[in-house]
Every structure is written in C-alpha cells, then in structure tokens.
Amino acid sequence: MFSRLLNLIKNPNFNTTYIFARFKLVRSLSKYIKYFLKIFSKKNLHMGPIQKKNLILLRNKPIASALSYVEINKGINDILSQLKSNGLYEGFYLKKNVLNNLLLLSNNCILTHRGNKKSFKNLEEVNIFNKNNKNPCTIVDLINDKAEEISELDILIDEIARDKNLLSIADNYLGKVSKIYTRFTWSTVCDSDSKWRENEQTVYFHYDVHDFGFVYVFFYLSDCNQLSGAHEVILGSHNKKKMSHLIGPAKSDEKKLKTYYSKNSFKIIEGTSGHGFVEDTSAFHKAHAPIKKPRLALQIRYH
Q1: What torsion do the CA atoms of 217, 146, 65, 180 make, to the nearest 10 degrees?
Q2: Which residue range(s) make up the domain with 202?
Q3: Element of type H or E holding 181
C-alpha cells in the first residue's frame, strides 16, 4: 500500500484534485456545495466566449441553446437514476438535420495530430501518412485551434453541447455546470504496436480524475462496434472500487478487473451514426482500437 501511495505522489498529474476526486464521498460533497451555491447565486445571464485551446472547444458559464439538437427517449429523472446507479445512460440521438450538417462540415476540416502537430486535409491523407509508419497518427482532431475565427463547425458543436436537455442532465448530476470542454476526433485504423497506441489513446481500462465533478456525453458520428472503436465501460464501477484502485494509478489491469467485477458489468457501447450516451467516467472505461473502420466521435465534458 505504501508503494502505491508513493507512486501516486510521483505521478506527473499529482495534485489535490488528482488524489481526492477519486473518492465518491468527496465528489458527492462537491455536488452539494455546488447545489448550495446555485441556490444563493444570481442566475447566469452572460456566457463566456467560445475559446479554442489544445484542439478543444471551451465554453465558460454556459447557457442552454435556444433550439433542440438532441432527441432523448426518456425523462430526465429516469436518465439521472440510471446514471447514478450504473454510471451510464444510452439513448440519445442527434437529430437527423443536425447529424447531416455536422458530417457535412466535418468533411471540410483540417485534421490535426496532437502529438506531432501535423495537419492533414482529409482522412485519406492521414491513412497515407500512417501506412508502413511505426509512429502513426492514431487520433486526429477536427477542431482547429490555429484559426482565430470561430468557424461554422465550432458554433454547431457549441450549440449541441449546450442543448437544453443535455445541459439540464449535467446540471442536475453535478449540482451546477460552470464550463464545457468539447473534442471532435477521428480514431484511425492503423498498424501500431500496443505501446504506441496506448500513448496516444486510452485503449486500456482506467478512470478519469479531471475534477471533483464532471460527466461526459459521447456521440458516434460513424457506425460503431467493437471492431470500429466502440467505447466500453464497467457499469457501477464509479460507485464501487477497491482501495487498491483508489490508492495508485487510475489505470488498471483488465484481467484483475474481471476477477472483481461481474461479467455482466462490462458493457461495450455500439451504435449507428448519431447514437449518443452520457457517462460518469470516474467509472472504469476504455476505447477499443479500430480494426475494420475508423471512428468519428464527439466528446463533451461538463464540469
């Protein structure tokens, strides 16, 4: 146990959040503090501007979009109940016109690799670069932070992230949403050894420790299954972890996890283009590396 604690302190991400946000009690306390502050604070009437940083879109003090961009097939209370117990609710769908517009705009995007900063005109160029390359681009981003102007794609992504139902779910789950981070990426099919892929993409089971309270909404923009980059989560693991999971790296060995959690807890999320889900990623989760087809996905993180 002491060696685990020492390794935790040595971690480059080491800070008070990285240590204490692992514990459910601390996250719950943070939620109720946010609820309390929301009751006694004035209603937010002014949003922060859209910002672009590190290939991510950021919005502070978000206000719900005027239009609806997402179809949801259950009431918010039912969604929150499943999210609290399982750490997951799936059953969101981007509206067809929104999906089509998003795909159309994505076709004209510069694609950027976060590591080597290389830019590509399209996915075909990425595939050419990756061919016979020992250091391929396993993920490329569509949000162009080199361009100072806010693009039509940036605006649409921001509007989706601020969809009134999504924002209401996140607000109720967290106590209050103060900022939104959004990332839009292609996960590519390429020949890379496991270590290289792991350096670029979280294809191993881990849990997130971004903050004392956060929740993700994911949308697949391409048809997605286990062979094309599907997401996998261990249901309920946001509420249940061994002490050795909490005192040590957030990454964990899959074989050991399968001895602790039931087989039915491992959920691979598959869906067609436009399929979405909300997840508390303090649960153990991972991405599957695409083998047959690349994956286009929108990831929205609420704090």
Answers
A1: 40
A2: 2-302
A3: strand 179-187
CB neighbour list of residue 49: distance below 8 Å, 6 or more residues apart: none
**Which residues partner with 220 through β-bridges?**
297
The DSSP-derived string for 201-262 is S--S-B---SSSS-EEEEEESS-B-GGGT-EEEETTTTT---HHHHSS-SB--HHHHHHHS-
CATH number assigned to the domain comprising residue 93: 2.60.120.620
Phi, psi of 98 (to 5 degrees): -70, -45
Q: What is the C-alpha to C-alpha distance for residues 24 and 70, in angstroms, rounded to an integer?
A: 30
Number of domains making up the chain: 1
Mean pLDDT per block of 10 residues along the chain (303 residues) reads: 53 74 92 84 83 97 96 95 98 97 96 95 96 94 93 98 98 96 97 84 95 97 97 98 91 97 98 98 97 97 98
Amino acid at 293: K
Please compute, for residue 295, the number of CA atoms within 13 A of its CA located in the half-sphere on the CB side: 28
Nearest to 285 by CA among 218, 227, 228, 221: 218
303 touches 182 (CB < 8 A): no
φ and ψ at 269, to 5 degrees? -95, 110
* Reported pTM: 0.93
Q: What is the structure's pLDDT at 197? A: 87
